[in-house]
Structures are given as structure tokens and as C-alpha cells.
Structure prediction request, 353 residues.
Amino acid sequence: MIDKSRRGFLAGVGAAATTSLAGCAGIGSGSQTLTMIDWGYVYNDGVIEEFEDRHGVTVERQAAQGSAETLAALRAGRADYDLVPLGNYAVKPAMDEGYIQPLDIDQIPAYDDIFDFLKKPYFETDGDIYGSPRSFGQTPLAVNVDLVETEITALADLWSDSLNGVSGGRDDARLQVLYRNAAFDTPLNPSSASEIDFDALQSDLIERLEVTGGLWNNGGESESLLRNEEVGVQPVWNYVIQTMQDDGLPVERVYPSEGTKAWFIQHTIHAEAENPELAHTFIQEWHTMMGYRSLMEPNNIAVPNDQVFSEQDVTRESYGLDNPDRFIYEDPKPPELIKQYANTWSQAKTEAN
Prediction:
């Protein structure tokens, strides 16, 4: 469903702070509509309505399912939005296949303050930048200490017979292969099928599934599995753990010894966006005005920008960002390899007891 909202103009300090940028972009005619596809949890505290008020425009948002699904929609010609947030692994194929356009970094001064370790080389080509990191999250292990008596320190523990029936995980082939590679100390992100022993991979995934008590597809399902004690340990998004801890549940956060899976979402602009200037303005104001209130404060998901951390007087340590070397990432992969991962995961689920 498309989320449409429109409010009258509100004068104030926030509006004054963006007048010059809006003027340069030609915003404020009252006839512009910024379209985007994005996750609903990202926008809180009325930030979309305030953006509309500042610039005299309308924002229309289509609910996103996931970066893989958005990339598929781009390929099918069903994602002709101005602003298209994508996970790090999805930016390069969207860029290489011509679905997104280079960003005009001069229109995004806040880009300079984005954490350097997230400005991946695969977001660039021929000196042009196609993705601007907008949010950074982690997927540590959630451990219900009332259900799990074994000490959990690593992803490899998810294969332990001692966790039979209480281990959980996401029903996602790419992620399960990444976790397996980390747990078995094999290359994390091979770039071609020739580098992979698919028989060994499938065997390892079957072993993982045979001690698994439940699989999930979204944050709500992952939380439900833990709250209902259907599983006692699984990798989940950090904010899910925080929510359960806030409710007094006996769930602890464990950063695996092999590395914690991290994810980050980039703002990208469609190659044929109708309002690219307005999209640039939105990206800039996400960092300077909206991101902390909208996502970082309510959901404990970081806006990876030094200026945001400084202005809000929060530390990187409080968001688990004090040691970037402890993270593992899913890098872009060829579509053919992704299909092979999906087939291998599907076969493993079929053969698992």
C-alpha cells in the first residue's frame, strides 16, 4: 500500500535551515511529489510530514519487503520510484545494470561525515558514487538464557547437538551460506561457483537445519519465535533483542567470535527519477534533520554519520560501532551464484530431517 501524506507549511527554524538548499533544488512549487520504496519502521515521529511542510511537496512511499525484492522489481520495471534504498549487496548490480544514477555529492554535504568504513568501493564506478549509506544495523546472536544452558560464543555453536530443537535462523540462502562460511572458516564471499564445494556446503546446511527449531522471514517472526520460546538462540537484528530486553525477557546479546553480521542500507536514486533534486534534498536532510529522531532513537539502528553522533552526544560504543573490524558483511554476488545458493538451501531443507 502507498503511504500518502500532505500537510500545510509550518514556518520555523527547521524550515529556515533548509531554505537555501531547497531553493537551489527548485523545490517548493507545490507540484512536486517524491516517490520512494522503503520499510515502514524507518519513518517515525512525523518526519515525512515535516519534510513535506518544509518544501511544499508530497511524499508517496511504497512499503518495501527487502533489498532482493526491490532489486527484482527494478529489473521487472516495477520500481520506478525516485528514491530507492538498497542493501549494500544490491547496490552494485543495480548500478551495473543501469537502474540507478550517480549521486551529485555536492548536493549532499553530509556525505563527508558518513563513516568511512561504509563507503565501499563497489558503490562507485568511474569516479561516480551511486549509494549513500543511510542506516547501519547488526545481527548478533539472541540467547534466551532460561532455555539455553550451553555457553554460546560463536556462530559455530549453532551446529551443536546441545542446541537441538532450540536453534533458529532466517530462511535466507545467502545469509545461511555466509554464516556457514564464517563458522567453518572458509572464504566468506566467494565470487564464483568454481570456488565452492557445493556438496560440502549442502551437507553443512543440512546439519544446521537438523538442529533448527524454527526459521523466520522478517523481524516480527524472529521476535515471535523467541517470545514463544519456540527457539532459544538465533541471529536476529539488534533492535529485536533490545525490544525484548526492554520488556524484561531473559535474552542476552552475544557477538560471535567469528564476527557479527552487519548490514547497511544505502539511499540510491532511480536512473529515471522524475525528481532527482528533491531526492538529493531528502538524503541530505535524513542526515541533518530526520534520521536520529526517525530511526536511530526509537529503533536503536544507527545513522552512520559523525555529525549525528556528535550533535546527539552519543558514542559509537553505545551502538556497537566502536570496533568496525568485528563485522562480517555479505558482499555483492553474481546472479547465477545467488541462484545456486538458493537451490542448495532448498535442497538442504528438503533433505533435512
User: Anything to note?
Assistant: The chain has a mean pLDDT of 91. The chain has twelve helices and 16 strands.
